[in-house]
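FAQ: What does the model actually see?

It sees only this:
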Amino acid sequence: MADVIRTTKLDLKAAALAGLVAGLVFLIMEMALVAATTGSPWGPPRMIGAIIMGEGVLPPPATFDLTVVMAAMVVHFGLSIVLGVVWALLAGRFAGWMAVVLGAAFGLVTYVFFFYGWTAVFPWFAMARGWIGIVSHIVFGVVLTWAYLRLRRRSV
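And it is asked to produce this:
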């Protein structure tokens, strides 16, 4: 059990940085998979940017727009930091295989939250439900876990 649960103090800096790392991996993966299947990587940033800019920025066309991308980065990385801290609070004491399994589950829960829970306020997320979002969110959770485990300070 010692390799599954460790006594650690909450490390907010590590949680925030882990969220940023996981958010970056998620964004690259999501954009690459969408580009491979629909031809344009700019749909996901437009969906994220629309959270603060409104539905008017949604595709078509799914083209690059610096203002939309910058808005999307603020929202996306802000949420990634929040999720990193939430993860550290909920399961930051776990280590090894248990942490990875819980991280994958956390990623899946975030997918359900954003793509089913948020659709009451942001209905355009419903159109993006599918395997790309599921896989990307699971990878987010695993990377978040991996990064937090490596960045946090161990307590004595």
